[in-house]
Amino acid sequence: MNRYTYSCPLRWADADANGHINNALFLRYMEEARTRMFQEVLATDEEGRRQNAFVVARSVVDYRAPLDYRDEPVDVHVWATKGAAATFELAYEIRDADRLYAEATTTIVAYNLNTGRPRRLSEAERDFVARYTQPIS
What is the CATH topology of the domain spanning 4-131? Predict the structure, then answer.
């Protein structure tokens, strides 16, 4: 089982009046983890990034427990569950050792920002996604 884990810091401004992390910020935490996970396959030049971008087509989040603001980071685990020629699905757990706060999935589309259209995943991108692919349990 090959998952990417990002230790995500909580920011004081992320908390609501009750001291809970705002539910919308869970999507930001997932984005931070996903962005770091994909650093090794993202192009380094601007034109390459535009031609070989990824966009989120769908997000589904199941909130399991409130996450209170604290100094310790929370872990965001990311893995792929399935893939196709131009899309793949990522699954997430936002948790610490004792508690699961959220489970989520995002559908990711390989995209060319210059043409405004989906594109096929490159061989390197397919290999990268395959390295992290496991079925949802």
Answer: Thiol Ester Dehydrase; Chain A (3.10.129)
